[in-house]
Design a protein that fits this description.
This protein is mainly alpha-helical. The chain is built from four helices and three strands; from the N terminus they run H-H-E-E-H-H-E. Helix 2 packs across helix 3. It is elongated, with a radius of gyration of 75 Å.
Length: 264
């Protein structure tokens, strides 16, 4: 009775593994023996190393049975169902009773633009150019005359201001000198007055020259001398101040008066 194919395959595989295990076992025994002989050798006698090996001929092993090729199975083709035919009826639309008439508009004629005319060259008019130049010169002269007149006005105003300032300064010096002379004539020299004494007074004056107040802002060091100077200013009221209100408000509303015997 012949053995099954699968069983024979397993026997062949077992024989191969048995042969491989046998070889590995003998090789391991040989290597172990060599190591043991090397480790446990006597110190003086070195025994020869003997390796026992068993040769196995491949002819003694059973030959594996030839493997038969397995048959190739073709895929089973499933029948494709035939498409189901349906009765599809086209939808019929009723035609209109009368089709609309299409009226084509007449084509408009294309009007081409007229070619642009080149700009006319300006005609030089010598007389017009001369007139424009003359008008420009007249304008420039008028502007220059206006600027000169304004400069003259400014110069005249500055000159008038300088003259007014000079007149006011002269008027101030004149009335300051008159006030000093009047105060000196009203002063009574005290017995304690000495040469070199100086006292500074602040005099408040009303319009018309009336003395409103007198105080000593810097003493001479002698109370009698200071009091005599204040009394002389009060007896001099009204002081000779200028009638010009602007000059009076600028210089004589409050007067700082320096008084000393050397002025006598």
């Amino acid at each position: 009775m012949p053995l099954p194919e699968s069983f024979r395959r397993s026997l062949n595989a077992d024989n191969k593994r048995t042969l491989q295990y046998s070889l590995l076992l003998h090789v391991g025994i040989a290597i172990t023996a060599i190591l043991l002989g090397y480790l446990h050798r006597p110190p003086e006698i070195k025994p020869p190393l003997v390796v026992e090996a068993v040769l196995v001929s491949a002819s003694t092993l059973p030959r594996p049975a030839p493997i038969k090729p397995e048959p190739i199975l073709e895929p089973v083709k499933e029948p494709v169902p035939a498409p189901v035919q349906q009765d599809i009826k086209p939808i019929e639309k009723p035609l209109p009773a009368k089709l609309p008439e299409v009226v084509l508009a007449p084509e408009k004629p294309v009007v081409k633009p007229a070619p642009a005319k080149p700009p006319a060259k300006p005609v030089l008019n010598r007389n017009a150019m001369d007139e424009e130049m003359q008008a420009l010169e007249r304008d420039m002269k008028a502007q220059q005359m206006k600027a000169d007149a304004e400069q003259a006005q400014r110069s005249a105003a500055a000159a008038a201001a300088n003259a007014r300032d000079a007149a006011n300064q002269a008027l101030r010096e004149k009335h300051t000198r008159l006030i000093r002379q009047r105060v000196i004539t009203k002063w009574n020299r005290p017995l304690s007055a000495q040469h070199g004494m100086v006292t500074t007074l602040r005099i408040t004056v009303l319009p018309g020259g009336e003395v409103s107040n007198v105080i000593t802002v810097k003493s001479s060091g002698d109370a009698a001398f200071d009091a005599s100077a204040e009394e002389a200013v009060r007896r001099s009221s009204p002081l000779p101040v200028p009638d010009d209100v602007a000059v009076f408000n600028s210089y004589f509303r409050v007067i700082t008066f320096r008084f000393n015997p050397e002025d006598i």
